[in-house]
Amino acid sequence: MSSIVNYFKTVFGGLKTLVQGMGVTGYYFRNARKEIITQKYPDNRSTLKMYDMFRGVVVMPHDENNMHRCTGCSACEIACPNGSIEIIAPRVLDPETGRKKKVIDKHVYHYSMCTLCNLCIIACPTDAIIMDQTFEHAVYDRSLLTQVLNREGSKLNPEVKE
Amino acid sequence: MPEALVITIEWITMGTLAILFVALLGLSLVYGERKVAAWFQQRIGPNRVGPQGILQTVADITKLIMKEPLTAGRSDHFLYNLAPFIMMLAPFIVISMIPYAKGLHILDMDVGVFFVTAVSGVGVLGVLLSGWASNNKYSLIGAMRSGAQIVSYELSAGLAILTVIVLSGSLQFSEIIESQREGWWIFRGHIPVWIAFLVFLISGTAETNRGPFDLAEAESELTAGFHTEYSGIKFAFFFLAEYVNLFIIVSIAATVFLGGWMPFHIGGLDGFNAVMDYIPPIFWFLGKVTFLIILIMWFKWTFPRLRIDQILTLEWKYLLPISLVNLVLVAFITLMGWYF
Amino acid sequence: MSQDIIMNPDGTQEYFINMGPQHPSTHGVLRLVLTLDGEIIEKVEPHLGYIHRSIEKMCEKDNYRQIIHLTDRMDYLSAHMNNHAVCLAIENGLSVEVPERAVVIRTIMDELTRISSHTLWWGVMGMDLGAITSFLYGFRDHEHITEIFEETCGARLTMNYNVPGGVMFDLHPDFVKKTKAFLADFKTKLPEYDTLLSNNVIFLERTKGVGILTKEMAISYGVTGPAGRASGFASDVRKHEPYSKYPNVDFKEILYTEGDTFSRYKARIDEMWESIKIIEQLIDVIPEGDFVAKTRNVIKLPKGEFYQKVETARGELGVFIVSDGKMQPYRMKFRSPGFSNLSALNEMAKGGKIADLVATMSTLDLVVPDIDR
User: Fold this and answer.
1) Strands C316-323 vs C331-335: parallel, antiparallel or unpaired
2) What is the distance between the alpha carbons of residues B244 and B210, in angstroms, rounded to a whole number?
3) I need a labelling partner for A2 at 20 to 30 A (CA). Which of A41, B310, C155, C312 fits?
């Protein structure tokens, strides 16, 4: 007798759990209009805004007089784990003090190797480099990924102290 | 005009219409499935190709047609190429039997239901042939499982329809629909018809290898089962056949249980019935079919899969005994007249 | 496969199936060679190494500040906990005291990572068994947490937020508010998980009594984490050898005794509830203060060997550093939880069907980069 009772319990109990499960998905079906969580990505570029901390690519900000803050100290090059930064900074005779000083010639950044670990940003003593939030950097030519971060003709901001 | 010419012209017209209908059906059902699945999953679904993504299936079929029609090297070429056509054969025949509105059907035999159940068994042949002829371990496993499953569930499906046949007293589709003029059988025959409806829905999903019973083509286990070796237009046939089978199961359920093209009548309320008759019958039919299709898609996107031994246990130990008892019950009820 | 084919007495023979490196249900590049007899599995042989990137060797040329970002990529779903383990090992070697604020922040981030890993696991488990909708629901909650991470740490998966001595930057002002909003929302979604899968009769039939791992086997193979705790092996590092803020928070260790797939599933769902409890105890009482301790610019560990265990979402991760006094470690070894968990797969899958193998592998929650490093 109990086996017959068990049989019907399995049937009805099973059906009940199935209907409850359908209730969950049914809720999302009925309220699809307000429960949709996906964004139509390439079409919403004009309104897309990433968070301020988001790490997209390393850039060197230049102000309106085309001046940056990089002194060529190579702290970022030493901090980088896999050699994505190369500093070319020859020693140049400084006319004011008469001593040789490092001046930044090229700050080479290999974006193809960078793991976006942020160690260079926190190692920089003068806040010369920051992380930008852009992330669409796919190119057809790999040489475009080796960038020189300081722009043509830019100079070190004289207010920056070593 | 000589009679032979008339018949030939009729053949060709009906055949072309049937093919066009099946093509349109496949197109809209594939698009519908993707949209419905997306709404269950809190996303948007196809929305780039054409307005609201309507032309998505057209793009898919174009891509499939342009693919190279490979034939697996050491397969049995004749059977390998024959299997997709057999899979499409059964649905075509059954499509011509279903009444879409009053008088809108191609064939109307007086043993309609019997013929339909017999012909829908031809689909198994396509599955088994494709699995065997592919010369591939995975396909064979998938085909064996699928064959066992389809053959078992045909029993329950047939017994479920028999319930309504007992109540309505005829095997002819148009007669069954006429007998629902006072109200659909799902309301008039009470408990036995509800049980039969549920059994038919479950057996129907199992027959078409859909929903929780799609072990034979389970992607995460055997990478596509019996149609692993097919690509291009032959795969498109299998794909299409699944959706047309779905439409057929749903139409039969709508016809037998929900009254086909018959509007919603309540026996005795003539004014109400006259109002209901304003809506053309073809819309009633399409509405019922759409409702049931969404229900079956709901099954697929909610439940996990059953294992093959659980599928067969469900049929032989649960559905079949329940259907048999239900048949006896409905015969008793019909004799005593205990239905509305 | 150069193995002798065994003929059964009734004339049938067993055959081999390769669930190759590219397969929808082995989560990652894992190759399994199955020996089957009809539908029953006789032996499962995993072949590893398809994603070996020599992380341990790379650690030997980087100094102690630079090795942390490599550990992000080992078990990428518990990235915080990997970083935490390495930082704790280094801090023990230097005998540096981490400020209280950093300790609490690290613990909260750990528990958030654990929840995000478990929601992703739940989604993938449903998808493996056929309920494809659960994948999207699991990812929705995972996405909620990664957005919180993106706002504070800057990255979504490979955060690199821990440094030796504390954390890299301070919390974003919105962090507490957003975490509380997430917790309130998640507590309504977890019962939905139950209704959709845990109570479902089809799911119960697929997972009860399947893939049984006894307690003795779990201890012999070293299966830790929720998989081992579901067999009764009380191995939670947070309870038995606590670190960070865990001695001061109140939570239960989840133990079941049956050791089948369903208990492993339940153990993870219960762990999510416990993690919610831990975060709720800590989120309102984050102390003020420094977020990083002052350490030298160049870190050199004294000569010797240092070991630290943490509890990741998969099990017990061990970090072993051998130092000879220089700026770079002499040798780093990671005891990965996935490796030991995978070794028990043969025991669990023997005698079952292929469908059971898929369910069992899902509950082991393997992340193959963790196994291969």
Assistant:
1) antiparallel
2) 12
3) B310
Domain boundary among B37, B66, B95: B66
Say what angle helices B191-207 and B320-336 make with each other, to 10 degrees.
150
* Inter-chain residue contact B298 with A22, CB threshold 8 Å: yes
pTM of the predicted model, to two decimals?
A: 0.90
The answer to whether position B71 is within a domain reads no
Residue B81 and residue B60 in one domain: no
CA-based torsion, B189, B193, B197, B200: positive or negative? negative
Are B126 and B11 found together in one domain? no
Cβ–Cβ below 8 Å for B303 and A32:
no
Contacts of B137 (CB under 8 A, 6+ apart): C15, C17
Position A6 pLDDT exceeds 60: yes
**B215–C355 CB contact, under 8 Å:** yes
- Please tell me which residue of chain B has the smallest CA distance to A24: B302
Q: How many domains does chain B have?
A: 2
In a domain, B80, yes or no: yes
Same domain, B150 and B36: no
Q: How far apart are CA C146 and CA B314, in angstroms?
A: 42
> What structural domains does chain A harbor?
58-156 (3.30.70.3270)
**What domain range is B322 assigned to?**
76-336
Report the gap between the CA of B38 and the closest CA in chain A (Å): 9
CATH topology of domain C54-372: Cytochrome-c3 Hydrogenase; chain B (1.10.645)
| Angle, alpha carbons C55-C56-C58 (nearest 5°) | 65
The full set of domain ranges for chain C reads 54-372
Mean pLDDT of the region A104-122:
89
pLDDT in tens, chain C (373 residues): 445 566 667 767 777 878 878 776 657 788 888 888 877 888 889 998 888 999 999 989 888 888 888 888 888 898 999 999 999 999 988 888 899 999 999 999 999 999 999 999 999 998 888 888 889 999 999 999 999 999 988 888 888 899 998 898 888 888 999 999 999 999 998 998 888 888 888 899 888 888 889 999 999 999 998 999 999 898 888 888 888 888 988 888 889 988 889 999 999 999 999 999 999 999 988 888 888 888 888 888 899 899 999 999 999 999 999 999 888 899 999 999 999 999 999 888 888 888 888 888 888 888 889 888 8
Judged by CB atoms within 8 Å, which residues 286-305 of B form the interface with A? 298-299, 301-303
B310 with B246, same domain? yes
> Which candidate, C113, C89, C146, C124, places its Cα nearest to that of C309?
C89
